[in-house]
């Protein structure tokens, strides 16, 4: 299975939020390195949006999103970088890049005659999409129909997670992008978000409807 972690690293994530995200990713990576089943059946890619713009990552190295180099690595080889927070929130560009790297990796796997389950994109953000000047952007609306078409064709499943201090408009954006797979957290509980991600890998039909995270 192919899984993209599409993570917000914009300015508003500075301080406690980015620290908790780094800690959660590091602990999660250690659990996969311990030899659990997912370590041999899943490939992960990390894409961030905010600090440095939109970036692909392999370990501690980030590289140009236009590069043909794949960010996917086997789960047991996933080594998260120490992320920093700065800049605006180019969420739409990051989601489109997530879709692009999945399609490119699927083509590579097809050449090797390797089959795959429906890929997943886990989007985590604390704000609404912006343009490169930091102004609210509306280019996410056409993206919703593109995602629906991919999901109907079983080519993708998008999970959209909101964390503090996401506002009402930001929450509505995530609900539009992922009607059955969105969740809003009242605190920086990245460890629980990663638990839900693990469940989605184990169950291809997993949805977040009915799951209530702790809010305090």
TrEMBL record:
What SUPFAM superfamilies does its record include? vWA-like (SSF53300)
Taking every annotated instance into account, which residue ranges of this chain make up the domain VWFA? 2-201
Q: Which PROSITE patterns match?
A: VWFA
Gene3D superfamilies cross-referenced by the UniProt entry: von Willebrand factor, type A domain
Classify the source by domain of life.
Bacteria
Q: InterPro entries per the record?
A: VWF_A, vWFA_dom_sf
Q: Where are the transmembrane segments?
A: none
Q: What is this protein called?
A: VWFA domain-containing protein
- Organism, scientific name: Candidatus Protofrankia californiensis
